[in-house]
Amino acid sequence: MASEWAELTPEEKREERFKRWLSPQGVTFSSPKAEKAYKEKVTRFASAFQLKEADRIPCILPVSNYPAYYAGTDLRTVMYDYDKLSQTWLKFLHDFEGDLDTFIPPGLVPPGKSLEAVDYKLYKWPGRGISGNTTTYQCVEAEYMKPDEYDALIKDPSNFWLRTYMPRVFGALKAFPQLPPLTSFEEIAIQSFVPFGLPDVQAGFQALLEAGRESLKWIAVVGAIAAEATAAGMPGIMSGLAKAPFDTLGDTLRGTQGIMMDMFQRPEKLHEAMERIAPLAIEAAISAANAAAAPVVIMPLHKGADGFMSGKQYETFYWPTFKKVIMALVNEGIVPVLFAEGGYNTRLEVIKELPKASVAWWFDQTDMAKAKKVLGDRACLMGNVPTSLMMTGTPKEVKEHCRKLIEVCAPGGGYILSGGANIDKGPPENLRAMMEAAREYGTYK
Amino acid sequence: MSGDFANLLADLKEDEVLKLTKERIESGEDPMKILDDSREGMGVVGKRFAGGEYFLPELVFSGELLKQVTELVKPHLKQAVETKRLGTIVLGTVAGDIHDIGLNIVDFMLDVNGFEVHNLGVDVPKEKFVDKVKETKAPIVGLSGFLTPAFDSMKETVEAIEKAGLRKDIKIMIGGGQMDDEVRKYAKADAFGKDAMAAVALAKQWVGAS
Lengths: 445, 210
Known about the structure:
Order of helices and strands of chain B: HHHHEHEHEHEHEH
Radius of gyration of chain A: 23 Å
Radius of gyration of chain B: 18 Å
Number of strands of chain B: 5
Distance between the termini of chain A: 40 Å
Strand order of the largest sheet of chain B: 2-1-3-4-5
Low-confidence stretches of chain A: none
Structural class of chain A: alpha/beta
Oligomer: heterodimer
Shape of chain A: globular
Number of helices of chain B: 9
Strand content of chain A: 5-15%
CATH architecture of the largest domain in chain B: 3-Layer(aba) Sandwich
Low-confidence stretches of chain B: none
Strand order of the largest sheet of chain A: 1-10-9-8-7-6-5
Mean pLDDT of chain B: 94
Structural class of chain B: alpha/beta
Number of domains of chain B: 2
CATH topology of chain A: TIM Barrel
CATH topology of the largest domain in chain B: Rossmann fold
CATH architecture of chain A: Alpha-Beta Barrel
Distance between the termini of chain B: 30 Å
Largest sheet of chain B: 5 strands, parallel
CATH class of chain A: Alpha Beta
Number of domains of chain A: 1
Number of helices of chain A: 19
């Protein structure tokens, strides 16, 4: 089987993955009607990704932690109470059933107790670092990797992660620098066990075990929610996450300040590190896609946006390893959905070099008319309904905005109506208005 | 020579700038002049950023260079540095949001364009904005935010300024990430700026300096 898979072309692989998405294994639909709806929805998405016209454009409602607030509770509560997590997401699923082309289970709502068990420092979440009524968790950017640690990262990323990076972002693992490199275990291991006996090191492992136990409870709940949605005829669309290597280094290792200094002071090391990170990102994304039905990996993009760097810097530092990750996924038959936060107007001429109908660009504030002109015959487009409109506008305004967007982006196929970014709060009527627009203005036949 | 120094800094010539700084200090030159030249150089960096020639990496790197120059010069300064300013601005990322990349760009650009900036940092409670406005008598407040929770925080911050009886005397601008003119209306701020150049233009207009 494995060798047969390897012999398929990227197109054949994608065809296989789309088939699996259309007829997922181990799913019992709640009714023939649900199964029919599921297949219609998958067909809509698959057609859009392939720049083909289905019955109408598909729509992804721009909700992230929204179901919690819709049900009258908040992110903090559902991060700690999995029963509430389940109730709120299922309430949203069933209240909006007729208005959903896809349903996003709370896989991105992390279990608070796991994060607490390891004393996670990379993120702040409601009640932990930021006010309990904040609707999102947020990344704490800092220099978790020092400028002189590039060689250690490049030489052995796993060792760097375990003994240098993880002790800095997980407070509970602060003693892990005392662990030996795992490759240094002696043939007849005697001394190598010693560090594992140290009380601080043991406390670190205990914390990991606790985080693991808690996460198992959580994933069972998330899995059950996802299964109920699929059975009800709602395909998932997000199977995995990957990042551009520049963002991995710039977001959570060197920080913005650090990586931008490195562009001047140690560009070769930066390039080398990104090349080292790319295959790690690829491997993780492929295995996530293999484990789920939808052949889709989302890549949230940060530091290559308009204004962050010049065109030349983008082409020198950002694009090469980003493209490497994209193409590795494409060659495995996976559709990378490239979520460009902010604007990407100055990058369109660079990114259009990707093979036709291989990726989807999910734009936040990019000029969609321009994007359609430059990329329209090459890539599926998504996004651009503003969060501000969804949260503060009227249903009429939302519907009208969507109508105009559809008019620009839908012709010829290859558009998925979706938000510029996601919302956590706002009038539910606005979500329904968005779906209404897809149904009324987004038909092809 | 002073023009050269400013240009070297603006061109981000790290080694030359630091070498020349040391030489000028050793020659017994008034350290204030070195700082004046640095300011001139940073002004050029700001212009290049506004003109689309420089981007964030250049701002970060020039800021680092300036820090190094200032550290070399500081021990030799006899009097405190006083620069004439166009006006005072209180700046910060609103409560519930911890993002500062955009905030710091705006800070940088307002500073090199002659404003005295009081940057309160991130996740700033509304009371802190009010207190700082009272303390500095700043006529301008800049509210930064990246994510959607900032919508309500901006609204609440503007309301707190209003409640404190300060609203009629000050102008409030917002910007960052998911902010736009819709949010400006929602928060009842005076203006939305799409980037740091817009922030400078608004500030200049509001103090009558444009």
